[in-house]
Description:
By secondary structure, the protein is of the alpha+beta class. The protein contains 19 helices and 18 strands. The longest helix is centred in the N-terminal third of the chain and has 31 residues.
Amino acid sequence: MKKSKKIIALSLTSVLACGLFAGCDSFSTDTLKNMEQIVAEVNIGEGESFQEGGEYAAYAGSIQTSYVYKRDLISQYLSNGSQMSNYSAKDLFTMIRESLVNRKTIAQYAMAYFLKNGATEESEDGTSVNRSYSVQEYNDYLAASKDKELASYEYFLSQTERDRAKYSVRKMVNNTLDSQEKNLVEEEEEKSNSSVSVRTLPTGVDGENSDYYDKDYKIYTGKNPELNYGSYEKIEGGKPMTRKRAYSSLLSNLLSNGLIEKGENVTDFESLDYFTMELTTAYENALINKLSEAFEREEEERLSREGEIEARFDQLFETQSSTFVDGSTFETTFGEMSASKFVLSAPNAGYGYVINILLPFDSSASEQLNNYSGLEGDKFVYRAQLLKRLTAIDQRETWFTGETDYSYDADENAFGGTDRNKLFFEDNMTAVDGGKYELLENYYGKYTYNGKAEYNEEKETYKFTPNKIDIDDFIDEMESYLQFAGLNISDNKVDNRSGYYDKAKTDYYDKNNPDTVDYSSFLYYKGKVEIANFDNNMIYCAGSDENKAMSVINELSFAYNTDTAGLNKYLGYAVSPYKTDFVKEFEFAAQEAVRGGAGTYTIAPSQYGWHIMYCTFAVTEAKTPLFTYHAEDKDKEGTFSNQYYESLKASAIENRSKDIQTQIVNNYAACVTVYDDRCEDLFNLKLS
């Protein structure tokens, strides 16, 4: 699924996007007349390029004057400005006005640009089509429209682009109502989910496809609850009455801030002038996006020149090779490596990444270990007996009991047997191309909750009976799940389990140097996922063995790991071949996993419990490219070549868009009129 990379430069978020109406004591109730004052005007048709002989002279008469109203400043303040308390009221409202002016300037330029050059746009069947525009057609469209500003944007948008913009406004309104209704439901039930500390969720849960829209999606106000509202899902515990109360609260706040007028027909939210104002903003943003997409195609053509990307790759490799001359200059950059931060060269072999899954001592065992006062070797022996009794449970109970129940019934294709029947994140795990949700990345998604989760319909509560597993059970779970995913486990294992708990204290020390701890003696188990010709380029490519193995371990980490700092670090912790700040047993096990290469896993203890290390990435040779760019893979999502190409393109587009849009704003600055005197009451506010 190709992700949209749209850019909206020099624009502010729409008023509903950030949870409008949390309350603002700074404003007294302004009259509607005061709110309708024009505080700025924009008409770039007066600019030099629209005069005779100019690039856009033929379109000068088609540019309509755009207005920034006082209500727009307050709407944007309620959305974003209340979080910017470091600014004076004058500076803050001046910035908001400037941003709105810039947006209108760029939108007007986009109109002239498309009248001259046409556009490539998405049709309703998903294909790209070329479209031309004409001054006569544009003027006729405006003449037939009641709202000229709305129509001036609407004309340049395809039906798909209009539908997507309208969906975004409807969704923002529903999100605002949902938030208020949830508070009302909690008040009525006299309970709060805030007391439940929900286990970290994988990045991307509930993530929606940015290009998705639903033409049948509607704003739900509590009236006519039996109607079809498209893909909108009513909140759990909500009733028509709680929704109506939330809607009344929304209307009250709009009224008190002068954004709607007494006497307007509020039974249909979309009939309000306020909805039209929000839709106009959404259309304006869509038009700016469309202009950015035109720049994007130009950058794609630039990058598509033969050898262009390869040359940039070679240049980055050479730069890093000459910069990373030792570990001190390399390790910080290496520690930040990700799917969008590329490290192509390492000064030495032995660096790598490991996912760490910590199965912890319980509080009683931890206290016993911390209070043990014997000598070091005796403590190792004592700890081994505590490790022998250590058991772990699946940590995902709050994925059932949090504000959202993310569980769903597993089918026969899930892992865990007939007694384990719950999986998580159905929306994301069953996502399809063009659907509402994005697939979860780096999360295999077939590992059922390890235990029983029984739901009591009458009490609306869960009863959990988690299965307790020891370290050997975990090894069986891990290796079985890897094999379930179609991966092969090497027969060449290091299995030190026999007699592990019966070691004498001398067994933990170097035979040739009895005063030195031999950290290899703590190694409990070592294995490897055999991936033929492991390819770093495929680590993030869904469906590849490299990614499947990482995704399986990542899911097990979410299930069992109590080292929560490691969750959502898909590559894991960066590991150096030299001395580290990790505890020594951890350090040895991590370095041993990296020495074994990607796919290797090691198990060893520390004072915290059992550590299961899985190597996701290993540097096996110095001064050799860690990744390789292949032009034929640049459109294959998840490959390094695709990520590198998309990164270059996004950077180029962002830089060019900023440059061009800044140039547009500067070129047409003389076409803007602002009225400071109409903002005096705002400038003099005391913001808190």
